[in-house]
Amino acid sequence: MENIKYLPCMVVSEEETTTEEKKVSFIQYNAEGNNLEAFLGPLEANILQTMWDLKKYPITVREVLEKLKQQKSIAYTTVMNTMDRLYEKGLLDRKIEKSKSGAYLYYVYWPKLEETNFKETAVRQVLGSLLDNFGDLVTTCLVDKAVLNDQELEALKERVEKNLKEKQK
Length: 169
Known about the structure:
The chain is mainly alpha-helical.
């Protein structure tokens, strides 16, 4: 037992792994947030963006930590807890791996969605909720906003025409 190295890591057991799929759910929307921070907290957004940028899966908490440390000082346990929270939200998946010596277990993670899929899913979820709750008001506001920009208005017009043609088929 004296050869075991104790690292700041989550205590896990092999029984904890399941094949149960978690549904991706964005439970918040921050109208003042920029990009990913409109859907996630700043650190959650930073970790997810870091993982997408690294494009190395699966990835350990330590690897994410090392990349984040290039921007600011941050604790291993903070990154570990945030990645666990992203897993609980259904945004990351994970599995347990053993260390080379077999002395301890640790999680490796990977995003469940690619960046573009995440953004599309998040926007559709927020818009779907808004439409369910406020119906025509949402449509009116979207059109009014699109009218302010000729490119957005043209894109909206083309999208509506395309959907109408597909619906008539």
